Structure formats: C-alpha cells, structure tokens
TrEMBL record:
Keyword Transmembrane: yes
Name of the protein: Anti-sigma F factor
InterPro entries referenced in this protein's UniProt entry, alphabetically: NrsF (IPR009495)
Pfam families per UniProt: NrsF (PF06532)
Membrane recorded as keyword: yes
Organism from which the protein derives: Pseudomonas solani
Transmembrane portions of the chain: 26-47, 59-78, 90-113, 134-153, 159-178, 185-206
Keywords of this entry: Membrane, Transmembrane, Transmembrane helix
C-alpha cells in the first residue's frame, strides 16, 4: 500500500485496509513460505523413515498441535498488526495459551520422572541442532510474511515484525515435525519454542527497517 492510498482511506474515515487484499497477501505468503520450508526440509534433512507409523499415534499429533496452534495465533496477530488502527487485544492469548499448556504438561511429566531421567527428556538427542534447523526452515516464510505485512501499511513495526517472525517460525516448526525424531513433550517446550523465538526476535529487530513504508 502506498502513502497516498493510506491518506485517502484515512480521509474517508476507513483506517484499515480492506480485508480481502490482506487475506490474499497472507495466503500467498503462507503458500510460498510453506513450499519453501518443505523444499528445504526435503533437501537438507529428509522425512523421518517411520513417519507413517508415528503419525498413527496421538503423541505425534500433540507435537504437531503446538506449531499449528501458533500458526493460527500468529496469523491472527499479524493480520491485525499489519493494518493501522486495528487492535490485537486479548487475541494475544491465542499465542500464549498453547505455549503455556505445553510448559504445564512438561512440568507435570518431568515431576513424575526420577530426577536422573529428567534432563534426557529435555535434551533429547537433537537439542544442539533443533532450534537452528527451525530457524533455517523459517527463512522463506520470514521473507514472504514480512512482504505481506509491509504491503498493508503497519504502524507498530516492531510488534508486527515479531508477530510475522513467529508466524514464519511456527510454520517452519510444523514442517520440521515431519523430520524431527523427538517425541518428548519437555523437548518441544524448550527447543521448539526456542526455534520459533529466533525468527520472532529477528522480526522484532528488523521490523522498523523492513516494514517501513
């Protein structure tokens, strides 16, 4: 959106861009980001060999539920932050609640284990690479989502950048679940969340520069 267009809308008493262009831009960004993450994952990591078997278990879908819920929450927040004059308000809970649930479940599960077994549940076998892999897979979506946000005249640039980064990170984590062998809830609560936090922080840092229109 151009400055003259925004001025015309403000003068007409309509502070927010129409929903249809917003939905189209985000749909295109999500498609490009998802496709890019899938291609990167297939080329760099591959799909886990037992995916068909593990996908038949409730635990796998519990793992997928965390990034899927955050994709929806971050998309909701990004869509509102991308438009001037639109508040996010209590909708931040759509981001906070899934993370809080996973952390709560992690604490309960760890408390039920012997002290000597707890660290293994948190670290798994891939803790050194998991967050960086997620951050790498998030790059296509990060670029696409920030493009979508920038075209809708955001005014809260750091918050909009952070929400867009979280959306990219959650989408990348969703794809990464097709490769990741880790099935312990405490592992997801630490390393998946950290992996999503990296593009979130990058969006917060780069928002004022990349989203300025």
């Amino acid at each position: 959106m151009k400055t003259d267009d925004l001025i015309s809308m403000l003068a007409a008493g309509n502070p927010a861009p129409p929903r249809a262009p917003s939905a189209r831009r985000f749909a295109l960004a999500l498609f490009c980001g998802l496709l890019g993450a899938l291609l990167l994952m297939a080329c760099l990591f591959g799909v886990r060999k037992d995916l068909a078997e593990v996908a038949a278990t409730p635990l796998f879908w519990a793992k997928v539920a965390l990034p899927a819920a955050l994709v929806l929450g971050a998309l909701w927040a990004s869509g509102r932050l991308a438009r001037p004059g639109v508040a996010v308000g209590a909708r931040w809970a759509a981001i906070g609640v899934p993370v809080a649930l996973v952390w709560g479940a992690s604490l309960v599960l760890l408390a039920a284990l012997p002290a000597g077994d707890r660290l293994a549940q948190v670290l798994g076998t891939t803790w050194r690479t998991c967050p960086l892999n997620i951050a790498l897979l998030s790059v296509p979506a990060f670029i696409a989502v920030l493009w979508a946000i920038r075209g809708l005249a955001p005014t809260r640039l750091r918050l909009a950048g952070a929400a867009g980064g979280l959306l990219a990170g959650a989408l990348a984590t969703l794809v990464y679940c097709l490769h990741c062998p880790e099935m312990a809830v405490p592992f997801w609560g630490v390393w998946y969340v950290l992996g999503m936090a990296l593009p979130t922080f990058a969006g917060w840092l780069l928002g004022p520069r990349w989203l300025r229109w």
